[in-house]
Design a protein that fits this description.
The protein is mostly helical and about 375 residues long. The chain has one domain. Helices cover about 70% and strands about 5% of the residues. It is built from 15 helices and 3 strands. A hairpin with a 4-residue loop joins strand 2 and strand 3.
């Protein structure tokens, strides 16, 4: 049996092609955001690291295809214990960057365990939901998958990484809904929780009640989300500059390396959090639309893989990965436009970040693996 022929026959080529195209767009935009045109060694280092991370991730995609994805279910509790240990260790020995203890320094590179933890939680949560699918409508049965998601959620929150914690929460809600969880209970619990948080924040503003679950900088982000002009040269600066960059691009943009907000360094965190603003300024509405259409088509292909998965476990894993990417896209694009609070969530395959690039490509590799095994292939 010719393995290569079977591989090409069942492979959904749209997925790797779109991902590679998005990576290429990302490298192009990063080159402008870090001002590679000014021939700085530091600028080239950013580009080289991102390219190396992309190559490593693509190699991992290939390696993943040699294993049946159901092995993740077989060893789900081993994966979960390792995840909890990893997230726990980072609280003790992690390197603090930008106010968050979320990095492990490996010498040549720094590694962010919470990025990989998102995928590991998906693999474990899918196994637990699948094993309890027949009784998931009962609240007592829902407790087990809820606990699986809650522990890493808290550990990541303790790292001062609210954005990734919210990703975990969103993944949990979508996977529970897809797996047949009690929708009424989920709506009551999360809807009630959201209303309570909003009331606590309102109470803080009007009568000064404490907010123990939010740091000062996180509260400031909520303030500027509501009204960035409250402090245009302080906490509101980032979002104001982002909006200016997006709006100034108009239809066709100012051209690569020609964005004034970008090149004159008015735009903050332009190679990471606000890279979408660089796209808008230099490539205009057309460039923004192309990127969003590519993301939309990629997510649609993921859903096709989920629908055609061989088993419920594969279906749930792909749903979780789709939810992860969807949250990243909506939050990153939304915060650059002032439609979502700033949380530091990167844009998949485009924002600079080696750990995020590698983990995102691992997720893509798992989706491709599930897609290939919807039919019986000899590996």
């Amino acid at each position: 049996m010719n393995w290569n022929r079977k591989f090409l026959r069942y492979l959904n080529v749209s997925i790797p092609l779109i991902v590679i195209l998005l990576i290429m767009i990302g490298l192009l935009i990063i080159s402008s955001a870090v001002e590679v045109n000014q021939h700085s060694d530091n600028s080239m280092l950013y580009l080289q690291k991102q390219a190396i991370a992309a190559i490593l991730g693509i190699l991992l995609i290939i390696i993943i295809q040699f294993f049946d994805y159901r092995i993740f279910k077989e060893y789900s509790w081993v994966i979960y214990i390792c995840t909890i240990i990893l997230l726990g260790v980072i609280l003790g020995i992690g390197q603090t960057i930008s106010g968050g203890r979320r990095w492990i320094d490996l010498g040549l590179v720094s590694f962010q365990p919470s990025e990989l933890a998102k995928i590991l939680v998906i693999l474990v949560l899918a196994a637990v939901i699948d094993d309890n699918a027949d009784d998931l409508g009962y609240l007592t049965v829902m407790f087990k998958p809820s606990l699986v998601a809650f522990i890493p959620f808290i550990l990541i929150l303790l790292q001062n990484d609210l954005g990734t914690s919210l990703v975990i929460l969103f993944i949990y809600i979508v996977m529970m809904f897809a797996g047949g969880g009690n929708v009424k209970f989920m709506a009551f619990f999360f809807g009630g929780g959201f209303i309570m948080v909003v009331l606590m924040i309102v109470s803080h503003f009007f009568i000064g009640t404490p907010l123990p679950f939010l740091k000062e900088y996180q509260l400031n982000r909520l303030i500027v989300f509501i009204n960035p002009n409250v402090d245009p040269y302080g906490i509101g600066y980032n979002i104001i500059q982002s909006k200016i960059a997006l709006g100034s691009g108009e239809l066709f943009g100012k051209g690569l390396f020609a964005g004034t907000q970008n090149q004159l360094n008015f735009l903050p965190e332009k190679h990471t959090d606000f890279i979408f603003s660089v796209i808008g300024e230099e490539f205009g509405f057309i460039g923004v639309a192309v990127v969003l259409i590519l993301f939309l088509f990629l997510l649609w292909q993921f859903l096709n893989v989920a629908r055609n998965a061989k088993d419920q476990y594969g279906y749930l894993v792909v749903v979780g990965i789709t939810a992860m990417f969807l949250f990243h896209i909506l939050e990153n694009v939304g915060m650059t436009m002032g439609m979502m609070p700033i949380t530091g969530i990167p844009l998949p395959f485009i924002s600079y970040g080696g750990t995020f690039m590698v983990s995102s490509l691992i997720a893509v590799g798992i989706v491709i693996n599930i897609n290939l095994r919807k039919n019986k292939i000899m590996f």
